């Protein structure tokens, strides 16, 4: 895990005020959107605005992702060719297929070489928002080594499947589960679909917990007010951190004594428990709750 992506906040690519303030909204990642959020007649101006922002705006260390139009389209190709020289952290690829990912990877690689940008440094986050993408997500991930996370897009997915989108989310249980499992297999992050009702804070928390219980590692947000609630779910609690630290301390002590198996608080500690403790500590470090020494 290179960075923590508990929250990825969508920002309209044609809103200079929101872009200017995006870095202080508290999200781990911001997504400057030049696709769904921007009408066709505003795409060129939004692209120019994003290019300027990447050079001039202070995002205060926040990851900056640009959601482009489909790479196989004229708009998408222009997005990639003109924005890549300005070095976003990543591109988000809509309606992902293996071919769309390969096209994007090829264009980004070409521009990286031309501009003297470190090869492979600009990452990709495909959106699984069709039935095909959900069923082919492993092949989509294999299409580029740039991919660090996958976002589930439930609105387009349910439209593609001709089913209703509900707050309860039962209709996307399978998609959430499959994407989370495949992403875990490839050791990348699985980002849950946004919760559409920005005024329902309880519903947001419940929906975020559902995603987490299935293996999602973060959640997209469509309003800054959603960020804190998402972080509360995906950030280790002090109790979890303290327990994880105690497990690691007990493990280190057992190693000093030459013990391969040890008990802690009356329970035998095995590899899965140690792995879980290490994951909690790693997330706490990335969230700024612990320093790097905690892993030693």
What does this structure look like?
This protein starts with 6 loop residues before the first strand and ends in a 10-residue tail after the last helix. Helix content is 46%, strand content 15%. The model has no long low-confidence stretch (mean pLDDT 95). Strands 1-2-3-4-5-6-7-8 form an 8-stranded parallel barrel, surrounded by 4 helices. The protein contains 12 helices and 10 strands. The protein folds into 2 domains: 228 residues, Phosphoenolpyruvate-binding domains (TIM Barrel); 58 residues, no CATH class. A hairpin with a 2-residue loop joins strand 9 and strand 10. The protein is α/β, with parallel strands linked by helices.
Draw up the topology in text.
Layout: E1 7-12, H1 16-21, E2 29-33, H2 43-56, E3 63-67, H3 74-83, E4 90-93, H4 98-115, E5 123-128, H5 131-135, H6 137-142, E6 149-152, H7 154-160, H8 173-185, E7 189-192, H9 201-213, E8 218-221, H10 227-234, H11 238-256, E9 262-264, E10 267-269, H12 271-286
Parallel strand pairs: 1-2, 1-8, 2-3, 3-4, 4-5, 5-6, 6-7, 7-8
Antiparallel strand pairs: 9-10
Helix pairs in contact: 2-3, 9-10, 11-12
Biggest sheet, strands in spatial order?
Answer: 1-2-3-4-5-6-7-8
What Rg is obtained from the alpha carbons, in whole angstroms? Answer: 20 Å
- Discrete helix count: 12
Q: In the CATH classification, which architecture of the largest domain applies? A: Alpha-Beta Barrel
Helix content: 40-55%
Overall mean pLDDT = 95
Number of strands: 10
- CATH superfamily of the largest domain, by name, is Phosphoenolpyruvate-binding domains
Q: So what's the overall shape?
A: globular
Largest sheet: 8 strands, parallel, barrel
The CATH class designation of the largest domain is: Alpha Beta
How much of the sequence lies in strands comes to 5-15%
Task: List segments where confidence is low: pLDDT < 50 over at least 5 consecutive residues.
Answer: none
Stated plainly, the CATH topology of the largest domain is called: TIM Barrel
List the helices and strands in order: EHEHEHEHEHHEHHEHEHHEEH
Give the termini separation. 17 Å
Given helix and strand content, the structural type is alpha/beta
- The number of domains is 2
């Amino acid at each position: 895990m290179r960075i923590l992506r508990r929250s990825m906040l969508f920002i309209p690519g044609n809103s200079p005020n929101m872009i200017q303030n995006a870095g202080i909204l508290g999200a781990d990642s911001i997504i400057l959107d030049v696709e769904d959020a921007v009408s066709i007649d505003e795409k060129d101006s939004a692209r120019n605005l994003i290019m300027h922002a990447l050079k001039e705006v202070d995002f205060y260390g926040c990851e900056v992702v640009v959601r482009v139009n489909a790479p196989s389209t004229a708009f998408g190709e222009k997005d990639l060719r003109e924005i890549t020289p300005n070095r976003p952290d990543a591109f988000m690829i809509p309606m992902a297929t293996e071919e769309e990912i390969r096209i994007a990877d090829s264009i980004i690689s070409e521009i990286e070489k031309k501009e003297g940008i470190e090869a492979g440094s600009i990452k990709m986050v495909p959106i699984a928002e069709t039935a095909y993408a959900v069923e082919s997500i492993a092949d989509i991930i294999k299409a580029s080594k740039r991919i660090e996370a996958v976002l589930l897009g439930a609105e387009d997915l349910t439209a593609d499947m001709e089913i209703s989108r509900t707050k309860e989310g039962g209709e996307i249980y399978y998609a959430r589960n499959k994407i989370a499992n495949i992403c875990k297999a490839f050791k990348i992050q699985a980002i849950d679909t946004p919760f559409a009702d920005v005024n329902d804070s309880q519903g947001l928390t419940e929906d975020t917990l559902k995603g987490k219980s299935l293996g999602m590692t973060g959640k997209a947000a469509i309003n800054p007010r959603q960020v804190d609630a998402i972080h509360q779910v995906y950030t280790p609690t002090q109790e979890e951190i303290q327990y994880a630290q105690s497990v690691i301390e007990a493990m280190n002590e057992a190693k000093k004594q030459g013990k391969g198996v040890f008990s802690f608080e009356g329970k035998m500690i095995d590899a899965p428990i140690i792995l879980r403790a290490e994951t909690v500590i790693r997330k706490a470090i990335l969230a700024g709750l612990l320093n790097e020494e905690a892993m030693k």
